[in-house]
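Whether sequence alone determines local backbone shape is best considered at the level of individual chains. In the encoding step, the backbone of a single protein was reduced to a row of integers, each denoting a local shape. For completeness, the protein is quoted in full, as a sequence line and a line of structure tokens.
***
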Amino acid sequence: MEIELSAEAKDRRLNRLVAVTVVLLSVFMALCNIKDGNIVQAMQQAQSNAVDRWGEYQATRTKAHIVHTAQVELAATGRRGDPALVAAQAEFVRQSVHYAAESPILATQAKGFGRQYDALNVHDDQFDASEALISTAVSLSAVAALTEAFVPLAFAWGFGAMGIAMGVCGFTALPFDPTALSHFLG
């Protein structure tokens, strides 16, 4: 009877460890998912802004080309000294200067939004890696409970620790890039 009680107590202890592990990892993963969702929204906004700026850049370059073509046509077909021709040429020069100044600004802004997207993507990848590692840890915890063995739980703790580390990197904006981990696993 004493042998049965000690085995039962051991099973309860293991089940308690599994339960605590699963709860702690699940809560941490839920918090990471909230932050990751916010990062994804910011990534979408940065991507949208970059696309908008590149569209404005292309439109500005097109307008500059149209103005240049109009200047050439006006010079070829107009009479020199005509006040309307002089006024039109002055307007075309003003527009050309404006478009020439605006184009590099728009390109710089678009590239800036692209860099912002890339920086956010690193943190999104950190949270994705965290989720994958913690999901693996939770699965190993379930295996430990089913097999009533401590070894899978120890592996679960290892995966959970790596998942928490990746989540902390995401929360604290540490520059650790999990691309190497992705290439190793992929």
Q: What stands out?
A: The helical segments are 2-77, 83-147, 150-172, 179-185. The two ends are 51 Å apart (CA to CA). DSSP finds four helices and no strands in the chain.
